[in-house]
Amino acid sequence: MAKFKYSMQNILDIKIKLETQAKNDFSAANQKYQIEKDKLQALVLKRVEYEDKLKESLAGKLSITDINITKKDINSIKSAIRTQLSNVKKAEDELEAKRLALNELMKDRKTHEKLREKKFEEFQKDERDSESKEIDELVSFTYNS
Fold it and tell me: Mean of the pLDDT values across residues 108-134?
């Protein structure tokens, strides 16, 4: 059975890769959210066009067929807007979930960076202590000789 020993650097590299992936996921979710919002905006503009067309139909020569068609178009676009509002909400929820995941991964990476820095500082302190001890022993040996 092989034992795997991961160094702090390997773990940090993995955390950075996970964070990069989360950033990409967040970016994709943000792009999807923007697309859904743009679709909604286009539908709202289309609805305004249909409503203007209906007003023109009502103001001019009355054509029941044109009025009914325009009303059906307006109802259809209202239904599409409701559906698109739902799509925008889903995309927004997904974006928020990706943002939270990214924040957690960033915190995790920063924590590991801090741990690595502390380990390095401990190593440096141990080295200084060891050198100091060696110097003391050398001085003591030289003094006693």
Answer: 89
> Do the domain assignments include residue 86?
yes
- Alpha helix (H) residue ranges in the chain: 8-59, 64-144
Report the alpha-carbon distance of residue 46 to residue 85 in Å, rounded: 15
Q: Where in the sequence is the domain holding 36, given as residue range(s)?
A: 16-109
| Token pair belonging to 114 | 């801090």
Instruction: Provide the domain count of the chain.
Output: 1
Does a structural domain hold residue 4? Answer: no
**What pLDDT is recorded for position 145?**
61
Is 75 part of a structural domain of the chain?
yes
Give the per-residue pLDDT at 59.
Answer: 82
Residues 6+ apart with CB under 8 A from 19: 102, 105, 106, 109
31-41 pLDDT per residue, tens? 999 999 999 99
For residue 92, give every residue at least 6 positions away whose Cβ sits within 8 Å of its Cβ, in sequence order, or none: 33
